[in-house]
Amino acid sequence: MTSINLVEKALLVSIQDDVTDTEIMELQDTLSNRIARNDVRGVILDISALEIVDTFVGRVIAQLAGISRLLAAETYVVGMRPTVAVTLVELGMYLPEIRTALSLTHALSQLRRE
């Protein structure tokens, strides 16, 4: 299950380890509607609950970032474990639309500067 919370001018999306295809489809719809309704500047994807990633999770992150960018919101990923970063690189997942931040506080600070 995932959650979306408004924090300042950003939507914080927590992605859980057991997210399903159905939940992702719902998340994409909900996120795009919330970006448009709330006039947000950014989307922060919290992936700290992910122990490992595969191509499905990498694709989900890329899709959420693409939706956000098309709706004029920057995307930051926080909570990435070193093993997750290594796996994404090994899988050839190039995610140019995504910025990373060490923490939620750091991502919000970056969004305030933009």
Automatic annotation (TrEMBL):
This is STAS domain-containing protein. It comes from the Bacteria. PANTHER family: RSBT ANTAGONIST PROTEIN RSBS (PTHR33745:SF1), RSBT ANTAGONIST PROTEIN RSBS-RELATED (PTHR33745). Gene3D superfamilies: STAS domain. Residues 1-111 form the STAS domain. CDD domains: STAS_RsbR_RsbS_like.
